[in-house]
Amino acid sequence: MKPKQRFGPTNPELCRSPFRGKKREKIRRAWAERRAKSQTSNWQKERAKEIKMSSKSICQPSESSSTKAWVVHGIVAGAAIAIALGARAYLGRSSKFRSRVLGIIPARYASSRFQGKPLVNILGKPMIQRTWERSKLATTLDHLVVATDDEKIAECCRGFGADVIMTSEACQNGTERCNEALQKLEKKYDIVVNIQGDEPLIEPEIIDGVVKALQAAPDAVFSTAVTSLKPEDAFDPNRVKCVVDNRGYAIYFSRGLIPYNKSGKVNPQFPYMLHLGIQSYDSNFLKVYPGLQPTPLQLEEDLEQLKVLENGYKMKVIKVDHEAHGVDTPEDVEKIESFMRERNLS
Question: What is the maximal distance between C-alpha atoms in the chain?
């Protein structure tokens, strides 16, 4: 009968060993350590293989993951192309931003300061005709009309070839008259330029300047022009003054001197600015303007520009070098005729 194997079928060397006791125990331990090391090595190899496979799956995704990735990449690429095309289209339109421009010369007979002013004779021509002829030289205007509530003015304007639109006597100011005239025209315009009829020497470059200023300032709904104020006009309430911020947007308009220092005198070193009166509007804002309620500052100064500012709208201002010769009173007619004779202006 064979004796029982005490250590199991592990190492034949132990079965054949002639040693007993300590020697046998030493051999058994050595074999156990070698076996343990072998098992550890096998485990480490298996673990390394798993890690390698895992890394491979991350770096080289499965077919399903790869398909999803391509879909995502396709969406992103498509969005990028759409954005590029949209930007190109927008930039293409920007060159045409507010491109259609209408010039309007509002004229009324019943002026409180100078009745019949548009028809006053200046060196042989009605003042409204001189304003019309100068305005026609502006290159940015697509169309020019006279808006009036008086048949005498309308007849005069038709006589020298002007297009005339009849408006209501209820218009409170030139801006409201411009809005009514705009609504009566079939063609649509982006910008309306309010050209003061009492500026017979208006420079066409100034008209073009306020139009381009509004086209270049999409955050503004209104643009106008100023020039240097003469010291003798500092306290004339008929000469409207203006102050602007450092980006060229209007802060305030006043019939009084602004800014007004504590000495109460004109500072010859300060660049005071005179408002020229010409102004252009975004046509959409012009439709909104009549619905705005009169504001305290507007009523106090009797300046329509203040209603725009008090309601939070932005107004772009350009400064020009212009010898201002507006006609506000009968006395101004003689001044402007003298100026024209000196310079041989017919």
Answer: 152
Going from the C-alpha of 101 to that of each of 93, 145, 298, the distances in angstroms are 16, 12, 27
Pick from 83-97, 105-119, 150-164: least confident: 83-97
**Angle at CA 69, nearest 5°, toward 63 and 75?**
140
Position 305, amino acid = Q
Which residues, at least 6 apart from 221, have a Cβ–Cβ distance to it below 8 Å? Answer: 281, 282, 284, 285, 308, 313, 314, 315
Q: Are 226 and 235 in contact (CB under 8 A)?
A: no
Measuring CA to CA, which residue among 341, 289, 279, 337 is closest to residue 311?
289
Quote the pTM value. Answer: 0.70
CA distance 202 to 253: 21
- Angle (CA) 63 66 71, round 5°: 125
For residues 276-294, give the mean pLDDT: 93
Residue 116 DSSP SS3: coil
pLDDT in tens, 197-256: 888 999 999 999 999 999 999 999 999 999 999 999 999 998 999 999 999 999 999 999
Please state, in angstroms and rounded to a whole number, the distance separating the CA atoms of residues 79 and 85: 10
* 3-class state of residue 158 by DSSP: helix
pLDDT digits over 322-334, tens only? 886 778 888 889 9
